[in-house]
Automatic annotation (TrEMBL):
GO terms for molecular function: ABC-type transporter activity; ATP binding; ATP hydrolysis activity. InterPro entries: AAA+_ATPase, ABC1_TM_dom, ABC1_TM_sf, ABC_transporter-like_ATP-bd, ABC_transporter-like_CS, ABC_transporter_C-like, ABCC_6TM_D1, ABCC_6TM_D2. It holds the Pfam family ABC_tran. The lineage of its organism: Eukaryota, Sar, Stramenopiles, Ochrophyta, Bacillariophyta. It comes from Ditylum brightwellii. GO terms for cellular component: membrane. This is ATP-dependent transporter ycf16. Belongs to the ABC transporter superfamily. ABCC family. Conjugate transporter (TC 3.A.1.208) subfamily.
C-alpha cells in the first residue's frame, strides 16, 4: 500500500499513480509527519530548472539593449505552454467526455418519458431491447464519467505542479537577485524589506491558482462554441437566447478582472508598507520599547491596515459578484432558454430539458467559472509578475566587482615582492545612489588583474540622472602587500565609503579601480551576524581548519566567551546576533574576515565596540600578528588612534583624501581636528590605559556567569529556543471559536447558515419546477411563466446578498485577528523577539495574513455553497430512488475514512509547509541586510546552497501536499461516480420492474445534479473542506501570536498620583537580580548601588559583565526577579511602563533609525517640538550641517536601515533624539563608539550642556570619556 505522499516518489517524472491507495490511516499520518525528514525531492520537482530559466531570462533582460522593457510575462507564458502541453490534450478529451454524458443523460431520460404501467405495476412498454438500451445509456453515462475523472485529475496535477514550480522558482530568483543587488543605489534604497517579503510570500502565491486556470482562457471559448452547436441541435434556436445572456456576463467578468487587477496592485503596495512598518518595529523593538512608542506604532500599523482593508473589502465585493454570477447563471440561462422556447410555440420534453440543463452546466463551468476564474487569476498574476519584474530589473553591481572574480578560498602564502601592489584607485569618484549605472551581471571568469573604468560618455549619460550626494571625490591611492593602512577622519568623512569602494560595493562614476589581489575579506562597521552558530558565522561556508580556527579565535579574544557558552562555538547566536553583545558581534565579524586568510582585509572600525584592553588584543594579536606580519594588506578604518605608530594613514575629509602619509603628517593637515589626540602624550596614554586596566581587573570573569551571552540571554542549552514551535494534531476548537468571534459571533454564523440554506433551496425549487413545467400540457400558461420568473429572480437576489454578506464578515474576521496579533506582538516581552527571528514574525504578518485576507474567505464560501449543493443532490436522489439508501452506508463509510486520512495528512503537511516557509523568509531578510558581507567575503555560492537546501525542505512538504490532494480527489471523484452509476442502473431496474413509479422530471433533476456533483462539485467541495482546515492553520498561527504573554501594564492607576515623577533623579538599586528567561542563569545577580540626583556615573566592565542588562533593567525591559529599583524615591515596579520609560532618555548601543520616515519624524514622532528645538538638538550633536546639505533637509526620508547615514551619524541622530526629550535621567549605552575622539569630546560637552542637573549613566569602553564623572560603577 502507498501513502498519499508515496505518489511523489513513484516516478522520476513526478507522476501520481492514482491506482495506488492507502487503507491504513496510521501509515498516512506517519508518512505526512516524517516525509520531510526521510524523503528527498524528486529531481523533476526540484525548483532548480525553473530558477535557472528565470535567472537566464533576468540576465538576458539586463543585457538587452534593443528592448527597453523585456517582458517577463511573455517568458512565463512560454514556460507555461512548454510545461503543460499534455494537460491541454487531456482537457480536450475530458470536455468530449462531458458532452457524451449530456447526450447519454438525455437519451436515458427519454426512455422514462414513454413508460406506461399496467394494473399490476409492470412496465407495459418494456421490452428486452428497450431495457438493454436503457442499461446501455446508463453504461455510456458512467464510462464517460470515468474518462472525465481520469483526465481531470491528470490535468490538474500537471498544472498545479507547474504553479508550484513557478512559485518556488521565483522565490529562488528573488533570493539570487538579492545577492546581486547594488545596495548603494538610490533605486534599491527605495525598496523596503517589507516589499521584498510581500513579493516572496503573497505575489508568488498567485502562480498556484493561475496555473490551473490560464488554459481556460483559450479552451473555454472553444468549449462554449461546441456546446452552442450541440444545444441548437437539442432544443433549437432558443438555446441561442440563453447563450447570449451568458455571453453578456463575459464583458462583466473582464470589467471585474480589470478592476480587481487595479485593486490588487493597490493592495499589494499598501501591504508592502504595512509589512515594512512591522519589520521596522520588530527590528528596532528595543528602541521602540525604550521610548514607549508601542502605541504609536500600533496606531500607524492600524491606519495602514485600515486603508488596506478598505481596498480588500472592495475587491471582495467584486469576488462576491463573480461568485454569485456563477451560482445563478445556470438558473437564469435555463429560464431564458425555456421561456423563449415556449413563447415561440415549441413544446418542452423531459429529454430536451435535462439534456439542455446538463449542457448549461457545462457552459456554466466553461464561461462563468473557468473563464471568469481565469480572467481574475490572470489579472492577479499579471500584477504579481509586473511587481516581480520591477524587482528583478533593479540595478546590480559591476561585473568587475571582486566578489564576481571567483576568488579562491584556499590559504594564500606570501609570495612575490613584499610590497607588491594589490589594489589601486585612480581618480576615483563615486556618489551615493549612483548604482543604477550598473544594470548587468557578467558571470564569465575573468582575470584577477582587472581594471574597472566607467568614465565613458555612455556610462556618464546613464548615470547622470541617478546621482546622489558625493561619496568619494577623485581618490588616487595604492595599497601594497604586508602593510597596514589606517583610514581616519571625522564622522561622515568617507571612511566607510572608501572601504565599500575597495570591496566593489560602491560603484565608481569616474576613474578606475584595479584589483590584483587573489582574495578580499571584509568586516563591516555594523557587523552582520546570521542566525546560526558562532562557528558557522566564523567559517562562513569554508572548510574547517582547526589549527587556524583556534588561532583566530584566540587572537580575537573569543576563547573565554566560548568557554562560558554551554555549547561552546556551537552556540546559536540568534537572528542578527541578537543574543550577543556589540563587542562580541564585532569580534565575530573580525574573526570571520581573518579566518578567510585573504590577501586583503577591509576592516571598518571593529575596535570601537570593545574596551581598551580587548582593543589592544585585537590590534596586536589579530590585525598585526595574523594579518600584517603574514604579508596581508590590511585597510583599517578606525577612531582608535592610540595604536597608530609608524603605520601609513589616510585622512579623509568630505569624501576626499586630505592626507596620505604618516600619522604626524595627517595631524599637521587636519586643521586642528586631530590636535587633541596628539596632545595626549605617550606617557599619559599609558597611564590612562593602566588606570583602565586596573578598574577592569577589579571585575573578575566568572566563568559561569560572566558573559554577555548571558547578558543577552544566550545560554543556549538547546537550539530549540530558536526553532519555531510545530503544532500537531487537529486544529483546536479554540481556533474555530476565535475565528467565529472575529467574524462577529455565533449570531453571524447562524445568519449566514440560514441564508445559504434558503438560497440553495430556492435554486433547487426553480430547477424542479422547470422539470415539472416540461410535463405540463399548458406550458404557455402565464401562471407557470410567472412562477418560473419569480423563482429565478429570488435566486439572483439571494445569491448576491449571500455573497456580499459572507465576504464582508469573513474579511472582518481577518482584520480583527490581524489587529489582535499586532497589539499582542508589540506589547510582548523582549524574550519573544530574542527567540523569534524577524523572518519568522514577518511570515505571520505577510503569508498568513495574506491567506486570511484573500484565500480563506473564498475557500470557506466555496465550501459552503458546494456543501449545500451536495446535500440537495443527495436528498433528491434518495427521494427518487429509496433503494439508494442501501448503497449509501458503505460509500459514506469509505468517504469518512478517506477524508480522515486526507485531512490528517494534509493538515500536517500544511503545517510543515508553513514551518518550511519561515527559514526562507529568514534567509531573505538576512540576505537583504547582510548582502555586502556575503559578497565581499566571497560566500555567495555557500548561501545559495543553503537557500536551495531550505527550499528543498519546503518543496518536500508542499509537493507532498499537492500529490496528496490529487490522491484524494481521484478517490472522491470515484465515490461520486459510483453514486451516478448506482442511480442510473437502479433507475433502469425500477423502470423495468415498475417499482416506485419513477417520475422522469424528478429523476432527470436528480441525475443532472449528480452529474454536476460528480463532474466538478463533489471533489471540489471535499477538497475545499480540507482546504478550510488546512488554511485554518494560518488562523491558528495568527491566533497564537495574538495570545503572547505581555509586558507589565503600560499605564496604572498609581501614575495619576505620580504625574511629577521623578521629583528628583536619584537611583537606588537594591539586591537586584534579573534573568532573560526562567531557564537561564541570572544576567545580574544581587546588584546593589545608589546614585544621587544629578550625579554622572560611568559603567564599565568586561564583555558580558551585565552592562546592557543593567540598562534594560532600569527601563524594565527586563523585570526584576528579586530586589527592586527606586527612581526618585519610587519603586518603578509600581509605575506603568510608559511612565518609567518616559521619565528617562536612552541611547542604545546599536543606533536605530526607522526607514520610510523623515529625519524629523525620527527625532520627534509625536510632533511635540518646534523647528527651533529640533535644529538646536541637531546642532548640539554636530549634525545640523550634514542634514542641511541633504536636498530635503529635515524632511528627507530615511532609507532602509538608515543606510543613507553612516553608523556614526545614526548614533548622533539618536543622541539628538535624547537631547530633545531633556529627561532628568539620561542613559548612554556606548553612544559614541563609532565617532572620532574630537567629535566625542564635543558630544560630551553637548551632553553636559543639555542635561544640566540630570543624572547621567554612561556605559563606556573609552575610559577617557567618563574619567571625570562623579562615580565609576564596575560590573563583573
Amino acid at each position: 500500500c502507498n501513502s498519499p505522499t508515496a505518489a511523489t516518489s513513484s516516478s522520476t517524472a513526478g507522476r501520481v499513480d492514482n491506482q495506488n491507495c492507502d487503507s491504513d490511516s496510521g501509515l498516512a499520518i506517519e508518512a505526512s509527519t516524517t516525509y520531510t525528514d526521510k524523503n528527498v525531492v524528486p529531481e523533476s520537482e526540484s525548483p532548480k530548472e525553473t530558477m535557472d530559466y528565470i535567472n537566464d531570462h533576468d540576465k538576458d533582460n539586463n543585457q538587452t539593449n534593443d528592448r527597453p522593457t523585456p517582458s517577463l510575462h511573455r517568458a512565463v507564458f512560454l514556460h507555461y505552454l512548454r510545461c503543460t502541453w499534455f494537460a491541454q490534450v487531456v482537457y480536450v478529451i475530458s470536455s468530449l467526455a462531458r458532452v457524451g454524458q449530456a447526450i447519454a443523460l438525455g437519451m436515458l431520460i427519454e426512455q422514462f418519458s414513454f413508460t406506461e404501467y399496467n394494473d399490476d405495476g409492470r412496465n407495459d412498454t418494456a421490452s428486452p431491447s428497450n431495457v438493454r438500451r436503457g442499461y446501455g445509456y446508463a453504461g455510456i453515462l458512467v464510462v464517460c464519467g470515468i474518462v472525465f475523472l481520469l483526465c481531470k485529475q491528470r490535468q490538474f496535477f500537471i498544472t498545479y505542479r507547474h504553479g508550484m514550480h513557478l512559485r518556488i522558482g521565483f522565490v529562488g530568483a528573488i533570493y539570487a537577485k538579492l545577492l546581486r543587488l547594488n545596495s548603494i543605489s538610490s533605486v534599491t534604497d527605495s525598496i523596503p524589506s517589507g516589499r521584498i517579503m510581500n513579493i516572496a510570500s503573497n505575489d508568488v502565491e498567485r502562480f498556484l491558482h493561475a496555473s490551473n486556470l490560464i488554459m481556460f482562457l483559450f479552451w473555454s471559448p472553444i468549449e462554449a462554441i461546441g456546446v452552442l452547436i450541440l444545444g441548437i441541435h437539442v432544443i433549437g434556436l432558443s438555446f441561442v437566447a440563453g447563450y447570449g445572456l451568458l455571453l453578456l456576463f463575459v464583458p462583466l467578468q473582464f470589467y471585474l478582472g480589470k478592476r480587481f487587477a487595479t485593486l490588487r496592485s493597490n493592495v499589494a503596495a499598501i501591504t508592502d508598507s504595512r509589512v515594512n512598518l512591522v519589520s521596522q518595529a520588530v527590528s528596532g523593538v528595543r528602541v521602540m520599547k525604550m521610548n514607549g512608542w508601542e502605541c504609536e506604532f500600533n496606531q500607524r500599523i492600524a491606519k495602514i491596515r485600515g486603508h488596506e482593508m478598505s481596498k480588500v473589502l472592495k475587491a471582495s465585493r467584486y469576488k462576491a459578484l463573480n461568485e454569485s454570477v456563477y451560482f445563478f447563471s445556470n438558473v437564469a440561462v435555463s429560464i431564458v432558454i425555456f421561456t423563449v422556447h415556449v413563447l415561440y410555440g415549441r413544446t418542452l420534453t423531459p429529454r430536451n430539458v435535462f439534456t439542455t440543463l446538463t449542457l448549461i452546466n457545462i457552459l456554466q463551468h466553461a464561461v462563468a467559472k473557468h473563464f471568469a476564474g481565469a480572467v481574475m487569476a490572470v489579472s492577479e498574476v499579471y500584477v504579481s509578475i509586473r511587481r516581480i519584474q520591477t524587482f528583478l530589473e533593479l540595478p546590480e553591481l559591476s561585473p568587475a566587482s571582486p566578489w564576481l572574480l571567483n576568488f579562491s578560498n584556499e590559504k594564500h602564502e606570501t609570495g612575490g615582492e613584499t610590497h607588491e601592489e594589490l589594489i589601486s584607485l585612480a581618480d576615483a569618484t563615486s556618489y551615493w545612489g549612483s548604482g543604477a549605472v550598473f544594470n548587468s551581471l557578467h558571470r564569465s571568469r575573468v582575470h584577477f588583474k582587472r581594471d574597472l573604468s566607467i568614465s565613458s560618455p555612455e556610462h556618464k549619460e546613464r548615470a547622470s540622472s541617478h546621482l546622489g550626494s558625493i561619496a568619494l571625490s577623485k581618490i588616487t591611492l595604492c595599497f601594497e602587500r604586508g602593510r597596514l593602512y589606517c583610514v581616519i577622519g571625522q564622522v561622515g568623512c568617507g571612511k566607510s565609503a572608501l572601504l565599500q569602494a575597495l570591496a566593489g560595493e560602491l560603484p565608481l562614476r569616474t576613474g578606475k579601480i584595479k584589483w590584483s589581489a587573489s582574495s578580499i575579506a571584509y568586516a563591516a562597521q555594523d557587523p552582520w551576524i546570521m542566525d546560526g552558530s558562532v562557528k558557522d558565522n566564523i567559517t562562513f561556508g569554508l572548510p574547517m581548519k582547526q589549527e587556524w580556527y583556534d588561532k583566530v579565535i584566540d587572537a580575537c579574544g573569543l576563547l573565554s566567551d566560548l568557554r562560558q557558552f554551554t555549547n561552546g562555538d556551537s552556540t546559536i547566536v540568534g537572528d542578527r546576533g541578537i543574543q550577543c553583545s556589540g563587542g562580541q558581534r564585532a569580534r565575530i565579524g573580525l574573526a570571520r574576515a581573518l579566518y578567510r586568510d585573504s590577501e586583503v582585509l577591509l576592516l571598518d572600525d571593529p575596535l570601537s565596540a570593545v574596551d581598551s584592553k580587548v582593543c589592544r588584543l585585537l590590534y596586536c594579536s589579530a590585525i598585526m600578528n595574523l594579518a600584517v606580519r603574514r604579508g596581508r594588506c590590511v585597510i583599517l578604518a578606525t577612531h582608535q588612534h592610540q595604536f597608530i605608530g609608524n603605520e601609513c594613514c589616510i585622512l579623509m575629509e568630505n569624501g576626499s583624501v586630505k592626507c596620505f602619509g604618516s600619522y604626524s603628517d595627517c595631524v599637521d593637515s587636519s586643521n586642528g581636528i586631530l590636535t587633541s589626540t596628539l596632545q595626549t602624550s605617550e606617557e599619559e596614554n599609558d597611564a590612562l590605559e593602566l588606570q583602565n586596566n586596573n578598574i577592569l581587573l577589579q571585575s573578575p570573569v566568572d566563568k559561569e556567569q560572566g558573559s554577555d551571552i548571558l547578558d543577552k540571554a544566550c545560554d543556549f542549552t538547546a537550539e530549540n529556543d530558536h526553532k519555531e514551535i510545530r503544532v500537531t494534531g487537529i486544529v483546536e476548537r479554540s481556533t474555530w471559536v476565535a475565528y467565529c468571534n472575529a467574524m462577529g459571533g455565533v449570531w453571524v454564523f447562524f445568519t449566514l447558515f440560514i441564508l445559504f440554506a434558503i438560497t440553495q433551496t430556492s435554486a433547487l425549487a426553480s430547477i424542479a419546477q422547470i422539470g415539472k413545467w416540461a410535463e405540463q400540457k399548458d406550458q404557455d400558461s402565464p401562471s407557470w411563466l410567472r412562477l418560473i420568473l419569480v423563482l429565478g429572480a429570488t435566486v439572483v437576489i439571494l445569491s448576491l446578498l449571500r455573497g456580499w454578506l459572507s465576504f464582508y464578515f469573513l474579511i472582518k474576521a481577518s482584520q480583527n485577528l490581524h489587529d489582535l496579533m499586532t497589539r499582542s506582538v508589540l506589547l510582548s516581552k523582549i524574550e519573544f523577539f530574542d527567540t523569534n527571528p524577524v523572518g519568522r514574525i514577518l511570515n505571520r504578518f505577510s503569508a498568513d495574513v495574506g491567506i486570511c485576507d484573500d484565500i480563506l474567505p473564498l475557500t470557506i464560501y466555496d465550501f459552503m455553497v458546494g456543501a449545500f449543493i451536495a446535500l440537495g443532490s443527495i436528498a433528491m436522489t434518495i427521494v427518487v430512488l429509496p433503494f439508494m439508501l442501501l448503497a449509501m452506508p458503505p460509500l459514506i463509510w469509505y468517504f469518512i475514512r478517506l477524508r480522515r486520512i486526507f485531512i490528517t495528512t494534509t493538515r500536517e503537511l500544511k503545517r510543515l509547509e508553513g514551518l518550511g516557509r519561515s527559514p526562507i523568509f529568514a534567509m531573505l531578510g538576512e540576505a537583504n541586510s547582510g548582502v555586502a558581507t556575503i559578497r565581499t567575503n566571497n560566500s555567495i555560492n555557500y548561501f545559495r546552497d543553503r537557500f536551495e537546501k531550505i527550499q528543498d525542505a519546503h518543496t518536500r512538504a508542499f509537493f507532498s501536499f499537492v500529490a496528496s490532494s490529487r490522491w484524494f480527489a481521484f478517490r472522491v471523484d470515484f465515490i461520486a461516480f459510483l453514486l451516478v452509476a448506482f442511480s442510473s442502473f437502479f433507475a433502469v431496474l425500477f423502470q423495468d420492474q415498475g417499482w416506485f413509479g419513477v417520475d422522469p422530471a424528478v429523476l432527470g433533476l436528480s441525475l443532472t445534479m449528480l452529474l454536476q456533483l460528480a463532474g466538478t462539485n463533489f471533489p471540489w467541495i471535499v477538497r475545499q473542506s480540507a482546504e478550510v482546515v488546512n488554511q485554518m492553520v494560518s488562523v491558528e498561527r495568527i491566533s497564537a501570536f495574538g495570545k503572547l504573554p505581555p509586558e507589565a501594564d503600560l499605564t496604572v492607576k498609581y501614575d495619576e498620583s505620580a504625574k511629577s515623577w521623578p521629583a528628583n533623579a536619584s537611583i537606588k538599586v537594591s539586591n537586584l537580580t534579573v534573568r532573560y528567561r526562567a531557564s537561564l542563569p541570572s544576567a545580574l545577580s544581587d546588584i546593589t548601588f545608589e546614585i544621587e540626583s544629578g550625579q554622572r556615573v560611568g559603567v564599565v566592565g568586561r564583555t558580558g559583565s551585565g552592562k546592557s542588562s543593567l540598562v534594560q533593567a532600569l527601563l524594565r525591559i527586563l523585570e526584576a526577579e528579586r530586589g527592586k529599583i527606586d527612581v526618585g524615591d519610587v519603586d518603578i515596579s509600581k509605575l506603568g511602563l510608559h511612565m518609567v520609560r518616559g521619565g528617562m532618555s536612552v541611547i542604545p548601543q546599536t543606533p536605530v533609525l526607522f526607514s520610510g520616515c523623515t529625519v524629523r519624524e525620527n527625532l520627534d514622532p509625536f510632533c511635540e517640538y518646534d523647528e527651533h528645538a529640533i535644529r538646536n538638538a541637531l546642532s548640539d550633536v554636530q549634525m545640523m550641517h550634514e542634514i542641511d546639505d541633504i536636498p530635503e533637509g529635515l524632511d528627507s526620508i530615511v532609507a532602509e536601515g538608515g543606510s543613507n547615514f553612516s553608523v556614526g551619524q545614526r548614533q548622533l541622530i539618536c543622541l539628538a533624539r535624547a537631547i530633545l526629550r531633556k529627561s532628568k535621567i539620561l542613559i548612554l549605552d556606548e553612544p559614541t563608539a563609532n565617532v572620532d575622539t574630537r567629535t566625542d569630546e564635543l558630544l560630551q560637552t553637548a551632553i553636559s550642556k543639555s542635561f544640566v542637573g540630570a543624572t547621567i549613566i554612561s556605559v563606556a569602553h573609552r575610559l577617557e570619556s567618563i574619567i571625570d564623572y562623579d562615580k565609576i560603577l564596575v560590573l563583573g
